[in-house]
Amino acid sequence: MKLPKKTMMAIMTSLLAFLTILLTVMPVKAADQVTNNSVMQRIKQKKELVVGTSADYPPLEFTASEAGQTKYVGVDIELAKDIAKDLNAKLVIKNMSFDSLLVALETGKVDMVISAMTPSPERKKSVDFSKIYYHPSGEFFLINKKDQAKYRKIADFKGQTLGAQTGSIQYELIQKQMKSSKVKGLSKINNLVLAVQSGKVAGVVVEELIAKAYAQNNHNLLAVQSDLKEAQAGNAVAIAKGQKDLVAAVNKTIARVQKEQLIEHKYLPAAAKYMKTAKKNNSMMKYAPYFVKGVGYTVEITIFSVLIGVILGTLFALMRLSKIKLVHWLAVAYIEFIRGTPQMVQILFVYFGVGYFVSNLSAVVAGIIAIGLNSGAYVAEDIRSGIGSIAKGQTEAARSLGLSQAKTYRYVIIPQALKNIWPALGNEFITLLKDSSLVSVIGVSELMYQTQLVQTSTYRGVLPLAIAMVIYFIMTFTLTRLLNYFEKRMKHND
C-alpha cells in the first residue's frame, strides 16, 4: 500500500522533530552528569581510571604482543600508568579511532584522553587540557624509499596527495600550508602507511618520532624532515570540561614526570625496546591468538545481531501489512529511516548517543544492537515481499477452515513465505557477518579490530589484511554452505 504524500511528509516531519529534541536534550543531560557527579568522584568510587587512546602511533602509543595477549605500550601509556598510580586507581585502556576520542570523552565513555593530542583552540572549546607533557621535535614526511630523490619539501608535492590522520594537527597543516596538494584523511596510521606503500598517497605527514619508528621497522619507507612551519604547543592530556580537580591531579603527575625526566630516561627507552622486539619477532604465527579472538567476537556479534534482525524484521513486516494506520506508519517510518542512514553512523549514534542515557552500555552490546536494528529493516522488507508473493487463495482457504488470522500467518503464510525469501535472507546474513567489521570503529575486538592491532604490532600492512580476507571468506563460505543445506531441506519437504 502506497502512502499519500501528506502522510509521508507528516512522518518525516515527526522524525526530524524527535531527533531535534533528542539532540538538544542529550548535551544538557551530559552537562548535568558532569556537574552532579564529577569524573574525579567516579574514579575514586570505582578505583578505576579509563583512558582513551588510538594505539597506532609508536613510540607514543602502540601495541605489543606478550604471551599471545595484547599489551598497550609507549610514552603516553606509561604516563597514563603514573597518573593512575597517583590517583590510586586501576588503569583501563580503551583503544579506538583518533577522531572518536573526544566524542568518547564528552559522552563519558572515557575519563581522559592521552593520545599525542595537541590542545588546539578548536579542541579547547569542547574539552579542557592539562599542561604540556611532551614537545614534539617537528613534522616529517613518511615516503617510499624509492621516491627519496623526488619528495624532499613542500613544493615537491605539488599536485600530489598526502595523507594525515583525520582530526589531527597534521591534517590542518597540509590544508593550510600545502594548498597545491590534496589531503587524504584516514583514522588509522596503519592505513595511511599502507596507502603510502601502495602508492595511493605520495607521503604521510606525522611527527618525527612516529615517522622514524615506521621507517626503522620497514625498509621500504623513509622519514624526511619537512619544511612545514608550525607553532605546535605540544601534547597534553584531554579532560572533560569543568573537571578542575582532575586537571590539577594530572598536572601534579606531569610535573613529577618532568622533574624526574621520566619521558627521556624511562618512557622512550622502554618504547624503543618493544619496537625492536616487534621487528625481530613479527611472524604472523605469533599473532594467531589475535585472529582467533577476532573470529570469536565476529561470530558472537553475527549470531545475536541475526536474532535481533529476524525478530524485529518479522514484527515490522507484520506491522507494515497491518490495516491499523498508526501501526503501519510506525513500521514505514522505522524501515525508511534505517535504510536511509549509513550503518556506521547508526553504530556511532547507539554507542555515543544512547550512552548519554545508559552510561554502562558496552561497545560490544552497542555494536550488536546497532547492527541488529539495521538488519531488522532489511529483513522486514524481505519478509513483506515473501508474504506478498503468497496467493490470496491460501489465506482465504485457511480462514474458511476456521483458522484465526494469527494462526493463518503462523501455519500457512509464514512457512511458505520463508521458502520464497530464503535466498534473500541468506544474503542478508552473509552481509551482516561482513558488516560486523564496522564495529571496530568503537573499539570492539572483532576480526578487523584485531587485524589492525597486528598491523600496529608488526609494522606490516598488507599481510594481516590478506589473512583477514581469507578468514572472512572461510566464514562466509561456511555460512553459505549451511544456508544452502537448509534451502535443500525446505525444497525436499515440499
UniProtKB/TrEMBL annotation:
<dbReference type="InterPro" id="IPR010065">
    <property type="entry name" value="AA_ABC_transptr_permease_3TM"/>
</dbReference>
<dbReference type="InterPro" id="IPR043429">
    <property type="entry name" value="ArtM/GltK/GlnP/TcyL/YhdX-like"/>
</dbReference>
<keyword id="KW-0732">Signal</keyword>
<keyword id="KW-0472">Membrane</keyword>
<keyword id="KW-1003">Cell membrane</keyword>
<feature type="signal peptide">
    <location>
        <begin position="1"/>
        <end position="30"/>
    </location>
</feature>
<feature type="transmembrane region" description="Helical">
    <location>
        <begin position="294"/>
        <end position="318"/>
    </location>
</feature>
<feature type="transmembrane region" description="Helical">
    <location>
        <begin position="348"/>
        <end position="373"/>
    </location>
</feature>
<dbReference type="InterPro" id="IPR035906">
    <property type="entry name" value="MetI-like_sf"/>
</dbReference>
<protein>
    <submittedName>
        <fullName>Amino acid ABC superfamily ATP binding cassette transporter, membrane protein</fullName>
    </submittedName>
</protein>
<feature type="transmembrane region" description="Helical">
    <location>
        <begin position="462"/>
        <end position="483"/>
    </location>
</feature>
<keyword id="KW-0813">Transport</keyword>
<dbReference type="InterPro" id="IPR000515">
    <property type="entry name" value="MetI-like"/>
</dbReference>
<dbReference type="Pfam" id="PF00497">
    <property type="entry name" value="SBP_bac_3"/>
</dbReference>
<dbReference type="GO" id="GO:0043190">
    <property type="term" value="C:ATP-binding cassette (ABC) transporter complex"/>
</dbReference>
<dbReference type="InterPro" id="IPR001638">
    <property type="entry name" value="Solute-binding_3/MltF_N"/>
</dbReference>
<dbReference type="GO" id="GO:0006865">
    <property type="term" value="P:amino acid transport"/>
</dbReference>
<comment type="similarity">
    <text>Belongs to the binding-protein-dependent transport system permease family. HisMQ subfamily.</text>
</comment>
<dbReference type="GO" id="GO:0022857">
    <property type="term" value="F:transmembrane transporter activity"/>
</dbReference>
<feature type="domain" description="ABC transmembrane type-1">
    <location>
        <begin position="295"/>
        <end position="480"/>
    </location>
</feature>
<keyword id="KW-0029">Amino-acid transport</keyword>
<keyword id="KW-1133">Transmembrane helix</keyword>
<dbReference type="Pfam" id="PF00528">
    <property type="entry name" value="BPD_transp_1"/>
</dbReference>
<keyword id="KW-0812">Transmembrane</keyword>
